[in-house]
Write a structure and sequence with these properties.
It contains eight helices and no strands. The protein is mainly alpha-helical.
């Protein structure tokens, strides 16, 4: 109706006044009422690309991040390979290396059938081994490269 009366598109303020809404509310309504665009809509002069080609997938990791994480994981596994099976398992459980779920000293102790103090001792000794320059150099090289 306003388009016909004014012979032009009404302004936000005119729409707000005619509808007893605030200009901000009119802007919001206009924004959400726009026609949706198909992700398959062609973009550019040639039809060789579409809108989906230019929209980043927020749920997908960048290839460089995936590669960096894999390299770090491999370096950690190499460092752990020099430990005894018991030491390796204590570190894996305490830091959640297998499933992302870090365990408490108490939980790891129950799994091994020993006290949490004994697990603390094993962990402390194991971390000291891992800090040794010979074993930690690959991890340091990786972290220095970041």
């Amino acid at each position: 109706q306003m388009l016909q009366d004014l012979e032009r598109d009404p302004t936000i303020e005119e729409l707000a006044e005619a509808t007893d809404l605030t200009p901000a509310r009119v802007r919001e309504i206009l924004r959400i009422s726009q026609d949706p665009l198909s992700l398959d809509s062609p973009v550019g002069e040639e039809d060789d690309s579409n809108l989906a080609d230019f929209i980043e997938d927020q749920n997908t990791e960048a290839p460089a991040e995936v590669a960096a994480r894999m390299m770090l994981n491999n370096a950690v596994l190499e460092a752990l390979d020099e430990l005894s099976e018991r030491e390796k398992q204590v570190v894996r459980l305490r830091f959640g290396l297998d499933d992302g779920q870090a365990r408490t000293l108490e939980e790891v102790g129950k799994e091994f059938g020993v006290t949490r103090e004994r697990i603390r001792q094993i962990e402390s000794k194991t971390l000291a081994k891992l800090r040794h320059p010979h074993r930690s150099q690959k991890l340091r090289d990786y972290l220095d490269g970041e």
